[in-house]
Structure formats: C-alpha cells, structure tokens
Amino acid sequence: LHSSPASPARTLLYDRVLPGPGLRGPRHHPPGQNLRHRRAELTPEEFERLISQQERETLEFKREMPSSSDLAKLVTAFYNTRGGVIVFGVEDGTGRPVGVMAPQRIEEGIVNILRSRCSLDVMPGFEIVAYQGMEFVTVTCLQGAHKPYLVNGETRPYVRVGSSNREAQGETRR
Length: 174
What we know:
By secondary structure, the protein is an alpha+beta fold. Helix content is 21%, strand content 21%. It has 3 helices and 8 strands, in the order ββαβαβαββββ.
C-alpha cells in the first residue's frame, strides 16, 4: 500500500500505468514494452471533473459491485476497445456521488473476480478516493495489447459501444 503524506485521505493501492497528464483514456502498450509506472492520485478537483462527465465509451459509473459476470464483461470490453475508468460509488445514469462502504473489500473483490473470470495480461489500476466525506474506488483499465480478451467460458469478446458493453460483431471487433 502506498500512502501520500500530503493527502492521507487518499490511498493508492497500486501504482497505475498512466497515459500522461490529465484525464485522457489509457493508451495501448505494445507487447514487450516496459511499462513505466508512476504514482497518480486524483485530486478532489480532478475527481469532481471525472464524475461530472457523462458515462461513455471510456467511463462507467457503478453505485455498487455488479455481478461477477457483468464486471468481467465490462473490464474485458474496456480492454478490447480503448480502455477506460470505472468509478464505484457513483449512481449509474444520474452521476450522483453516493460513496461505497469498505472500499478495500471492493478492490479485493474486483481482483478476485478478474483473476477467476478473465485472462488479463495487465491488471487494472485501483485507487481509493476520498471526496465530500465519502470514499470511492476507481478502476483504470488499459487498452489491451493482446486482443481479444474473453470472459472465461465465453466464445465472443465484448467491446464498448457508447456507454454499453456489447458482444463484438464482425466489423465492431477492434
């Protein structure tokens, strides 16, 4: 666990692979390339900007943990498309921040689900963010380098189409 002495309310659980400054989506990393890790913590202002946006191809809000099947489809869809960020503790549709209870348990649950339901070459990055007296979990998924990524037991990959996860159909495979 990493802690930032300047902001003890935020705890970074893993170093994240970041695309660069700002809140742009994650980048594709070619196979064999050494990924440079650097610490990143969302400031309250950056987090506010993030959750003030609409859900879209690279951003998904979840009030709470979805089923293991739905989470695996969402994460593999991000890996198969352009990457993206999942924010736990924000209502789907309304974007209203509600926070989560036990954010470390959510992070552990996500890791366990992804390890058992998907074969990812790089695990997503996780961050617990404190905002307006509540805690949130952000999950940053990279665009995958070895597509397609499948949910175990599924024969077709999922992709993001707008703010939805869909089975890839011929021309939508990327």
